Structures are given as structure tokens and as C-alpha cells.
Amino acid sequence: MAPGALRAALRAIPRLYGVTDATSATGMPDGEYALGTQRVFKCGGCVRLATGSLAGSVLTMDQALRNFVSLGLDLADASNRLSRYPADYLGEGERGRLEPGAWADIVVLDETLHPVAVFAEGEAIDLH
């Protein structure tokens, strides 16, 4: 989404949240990939069908966080928009937050907002 459109959406929707429609091509070089039974083609930041129709993206949640922060949102607000607000929408009160009784799904970021550690339900996940 273009920065101007996202800024307008943020003004219009107070609890606007972000999700990603990332495909299996995420993190991979440009080329041909499978999306279910369809063949898709990754080029740059998007994934398209052979017809040219948009089929998905390669947006990761950490990049979505950096995108929100680059628009001027503070880190806590940007984080809530990618964790707490989507979980709340789904009625998942034990996810998307760091509170007693929550699932302890945590991503540790470096100063450039890139992941350095991931924990799912409190257990470390190997990033490599």
C-alpha cells in the first residue's frame, strides 16, 4: 500500500491493523513458485499469476513493522497494529500481547528492527 493511502487509512480507522498475504516465495529469489495448485511468479515485492493478476506478496511482518515506523508511528503503536489488534479482532485474548497468561509469542528485534530471536509459546525457534 502506498504511504499516502496508509496514512489516510490510519486517520480513518483508529485500530487499523496490518496483516501479510506473503506466499511461499517470501525470502526467495525472483522466479517461479507454487501457490496451491497455481504457478506464480515472484518479481520484486509481488507475486503474480501467469495472467499478470496479483496473487500475493512477499511482505514479512518485520518489514510491515518497519513500514509503519517509517510513517512516523511509534514502535509500541506499530507493534500493536501487527499483533494485539489482529488478535483482538479474532477474539484471541491470549495472543498478540505480553501479559501473564498470554502465549509468550515474542520476536526480539535489533536496533534496525530486524529479528534476532523468535519465541513461540515461550520456546526458542531457530532462525537459521
TrEMBL record:
InterPro entries: Metal-dep_hydrolase_composite, Metal_Hydrolase. GO terms for biological process: N-acetylglucosamine catabolic process. Keywords: Hydrolase. SUPFAM superfamilies: Composite domain of metallo-dependent hydrolases, Metallo-dependent hydrolases. GO terms for molecular function: N-acetylglucosamine-6-phosphate deacetylase activity. Belongs to the metallo-dependent hydrolases superfamily. NagA family. This is N-acetylglucosamine-6-phosphate deacetylase. It comes from Massilia yuzhufengensis.
